[in-house]
């Protein structure tokens, strides 16, 4: 047993440490031996060929002696094998009647072995060779260059129609011979059109896919003034007009019929070519090298081609390559088949045309149809990474474009969602990054016209991060970390404009978006459905820290609107996840600022809209209208914050410090010597304090009836868990305030729309200028704000001095 165990241990050790290297070494040695054998065979064949030429009968005379040199002017006869002789011989024999060389024709013909042997028998009188070209190394190398993916001679062996016609013109005798002895060699090759489609989409092929797809290059588009017949569906030939390749409605109708009845691939190829021409309509070719396959001169034909291509090409693809679904729910297409490799050229050209067409469309219906046609072809594009990246960016552009309608945004989002669902981890990460970048770019301009679309983007994109929690976590962590780096750089760099990295719409909307993601994916309902805790929940703490840091970066009144936006984001996160976030302090800091301690000045400015502004113009500072707006925001945010914990057993202790601080501020505000003396603001805060005290007494009354200790966490968490929040004193007050705010917002929106309608009527009547659009007003305000930003630091210093004076006055009062 001892030696056996020892040998077993040595065997395992050898397998672990040395087996892989030994196998690799053996493979390398085998490859070297194989190469040496090939060289030896080639050398022996070369020797036999040389002897063959030297032993030619003398009666052949000078003609036979000149044959090798005449047939191969560019090669030395001593370097050629019999196989090379036959291959090159066919090219020169066929082209002997014409001065041009037919290299491509020779490559096509060399795959048809019977035809090659017959041609050799008629032209070279070599009756003793009988060599199979397909078995020679030289022929195999040539085939590799032209057949890469297909790997099937039947698929590549047929002649294209142009090649067949050229052969009939140049060598009618040989054409007749092939027709009688090998008619299959003259069959029209469907892949000739695929080479043409490949030429159309050559610019967008992935570098990784170049080894998977055929590399044939189509010749330049030929003029059809001669009226030659083109191959149509079911083998029928349709004669094209002599006035260029003009596309007509009967042609489109014929293609539609062929596709609907037989799912014809040939008709589908013609439709893709016509669709390509329609997508590039009225575009000048700078190089002048390529011409559109079809000329579209009628809007009816243009519409028919678009509808036919967008609706029926996905159906044809699904018929010939049905999408299958695995047991785990993943969809897949058999990419190893010859049919997929053939149709991939058609598919890439079709997708490239769609992406180009999207950049030229503006009509909502056409955009919806075009975007909808992308969804069914996504499973076929998963193996083309570069094309998927370009397609995702094109779709995200319409999803994030401010000018896009709601219908277009939703349609584009459905395409992106489908891509994330069926894609692998790499595709999902690519799509999520493109979505986030599009969101950041699309929210750069925020006003009443764009805020609805921005909210739609944030709410829809939040769903994508829950499809794959692992990919969602890594991407979310990366982007939140970038926000933290921007915040750190703003704090560390002592420059006047360093805060602008943080205090802008893009940073604000980014933080708000991640709060939407965490609120959507980390809610108790979602976790109950999944049966486990979501990984994204780990990002709540870093997001809250970054948001609180951004709130306190510049605590001046001019950026109070941004502070309110970020506090609302944190409230959403706290409400959805049940996480306690201490928000009372940043809200009360607003009341402690210099802006709210001094009496306001009267002004005729309109009410400040906090919903679509992240900073206040300097003209609003110290005004009554701005101070009233700040008071409303403070009361609303404090009410929403305490509403989250209105049924908590610890509510009295949570509300007590805030109640004390609010009472102290109201006492100072009513002072005759100092305070802002704003009766409206004071009355609002008095009402809020009353509701907080009432809710604290309500909780104390229920708490007096419990029979468990504070350390019993289960019972503490279950305290008033099923009690309706709206029945608490604070809950009823906050819900009523929400209703009032919604009604006020609705009335303001109606008034805004009415002003916009009147402005448009004035412009149409030629008396415009009386009404100014919101964008123009905001542009004017932003210009003023840019000038005011230079004075921000001076304003901060003034406020700091005012706060110091107020603190000194408070100390004097306490001493008295």
Break the fold down into its secondary structure elements and pairings.
Layout: H1 2-17, H2 19-54, H3 61-71, H4 82-94, H5 103-110, H6 113-123, H7 137-147, H8 153-157, H9 161-170, H10 172-181, H11 190-200, E1 229-231, E2 237-239, H12 249-262, H13 265-279, H14 299-320, E3 324-325, E4 331-332, H15 338-358, H16 364-372, H17 378-381, H18 385-400, H19 406-422, H20 425-442, H21 451-464, H22 469-492, H23 505-521, H24 524-530, H25 540-551, H26 560-577, H27 584-591, H28 624-643, H29 651-669, H30 679-703, H31 713-717, H32 729-764, H33 774-789, H34 792-815
Antiparallel strand pairs: 1-2, 3-4
What keywords describe this structure?
816 residues, two-stranded antiparallel sheet, two-stranded antiparallel ribbon, extended, disordered C terminus, Nucleolar complex protein 2, Noc2
Can you describe this structure?
The structure is a single chain. The protein is mainly α and about 800 residues long. The protein has helices at about 1-15, 20-55, 60-70, 80-95, 105-110, 115-125, 135-145, 155, 160-170, 170-180, 190-200, 250-260, 265-280, 300-320, 340-360, 365-370, 380, 385-400, 405-420, 425-440, 450-465, 470-490, 505-520, 525-530, 540-550, 560-575, 585-590, 625-645, 650-670, 680-705, 715, 730-765, 775-790, 790-815, and strands spanning about 230, 235-240, 325, 330. Among the domains are: about 20-50; about 80-175, no CATH class; about 195-220 and about 250-410, no CATH class. A hairpin with a 5-residue loop joins β1 and β2. It starts with a helix and ends with a helix.
